[in-house]
Specification:
Layout (H helix, E strand, L loop, with lengths): L6 H8 L3 H9 L6 H14 L5 H8 L4 E6 L6 H13 L5 E6 L4 H13 L4 E5 L5 H7 L6 E4 L8 E5 L1 H13 L6 E5 L7 H14 L9 E3 L4 H12 L7 E4 L2 H14 L8 E6 L12 E4 L2 H16 L9 E4 L2 E3 L5
Parallel strand pairs: 1-2, 1-3, 3-4, 4-5, 5-11, 6-7, 6-8, 8-9, 9-10
Antiparallel strand pairs: 10-12
Helix pairs in contact: 1-2, 1-3, 2-3, 5-12, 8-9, 10-11
């Protein structure tokens, strides 16, 4: 096997000192345009690649950001990852992704492993962890952004305006004269379901309607979970006339359950989702849903991290709220 190309090899080829090569390739100090051109040409000719391990030891930076999400199979989170990538890539940062199934021990395990790997920053879509978990596992030297969960006052956070989104969705149904509206949430205390439940409840109360316990259905945040939960709901003697769902996957499962039960959508059952993943416009009928901009969520998370990693921001935790809005298609 051939020996790795070194800075000294590049320096000899370019006719400059190793120090000049280091300055030219790192950009930390200026070099003359002619020297810079010779160094870059020599590096290309020789196939030189910087030793990232040595660079990390020297700079105490790995240029890696961890993104921890509950379910990478949910199409919402790849869009988040794309927004994050576009926010940080130009500054030389890369993303590593962990999927936790929304389980507390798995979330904690990923957090601990990312700390051990000395990532420069962490973004976590926390579904089951609490404030004490974050404080215990993540040292203060590693910037942390918590997304979609108001569980922290100690770290930066990015949230979509969940309550406003479901309140708008519920008001849309009420404006059509529909009052028998159920909310299909995620597991209690996990993920954004409870925040989204708040908006539904506010809209119902404003209309003089007090939802009962039977109006709030719990499901996994999956198509299968929505299909099962709504299938059971539709078997009731008096099923609801409309559903507001905590995410699009639940809503798509609801459409499948309605089809299985011979229930027409929206004539007999109106359905509204949340997130506007790509599949929402592709199902039949196309899903009315709350747009929760995944790309913007990822971009905002990346900007908060870069402020601390590059811009030197060392102030108090910040909170960014990304607006939501209703997009009306064919299901409600």
């Amino acid at each position: 096997m051939s020996k790795p190309v070194t800075i000294s090899d590049v320096a000899a080829r370019a006719g400059v000192s190793p120090t000049t090569v280091s300055h030219a390739l790192s950009g930390r100090r200026s070099v003359s345009p002619s020297a810079l051109a010779r160094v870059k040409q020599a590096a290309d000719d020789l196939g030189y690649r910087p030793n990232q391990v040595a660079s990390s030891l020297r700079t105490q930076r790995t240029h890696t950001v961890a993104l921890i999400v509950p379910d990478i199979a949910n199409p919402y989170y790849p869009a988040v990852a794309r927004g994050l990538h576009d926010a940080i890539a130009a500054d030389g940062y890369y993303t590593t992704i962990g999927s936790t199934d929304g389980e507390r021990e798995t979330e904690l395990g990923f957090l601990d492993e990312m700390v051990r790997r000395s990532v420069d920053g962490i973004i976590v879509f926390a579904f089951a962890m609490g404030e004490e978990d974050l404080t215990r596992v993540v040292p203060a030297r590693i910037p942390l952004v918590v997304a979609t969960h108001n569980l922290t006052n100690a770290h930066d956070q990015v949230n979509s305006d969940d309550p406003a989104g479901t309140e708008t969705a519920t008001r849309h149904l009420l404006a059509q004269g529909i009052t028998e509206i159920a909310f299909v949430s995620g597991p209690k205390g996990r993920g954004p379901g409870d925040r989204r439940l708040t908006g539904y409840t506010q809209a119902m109360h404003s209309a003089g309607i007090v939802p009962t316990a039977s109006d709030i259905i719990r499901s996994d945040y999956t198509v299968a979970g929505g299909r099962q939960a709504v299938g059971e709901l539709l078997s009731r003697p008096r099923p609801p006339r409309a559903l507001v769902c905590a995410n699009d996957l639940i809503a798509i499962g609801a459409l499948e359950a309605a089809r299985d039960a011979g229930v027409a959508v929206p004539a007999d059952l109106a359905v509204i989702g949340f997130d506007d993943v790509d599949a929402a416009s592709l199902v039949a009928p196309p899903l009315t849903t709350v747009v929760n901009p995944a790309y913007e969520m990822g971009r905002q998370c990346g900007r908060l991290l870069l402020d601390r990693l590059i811009e030197g921001y060392d102030g108090p935790p910040r909170s960014v709220v990304v607006p939501t809005h209703l997009i009306i298609r064919a299901t409600a």
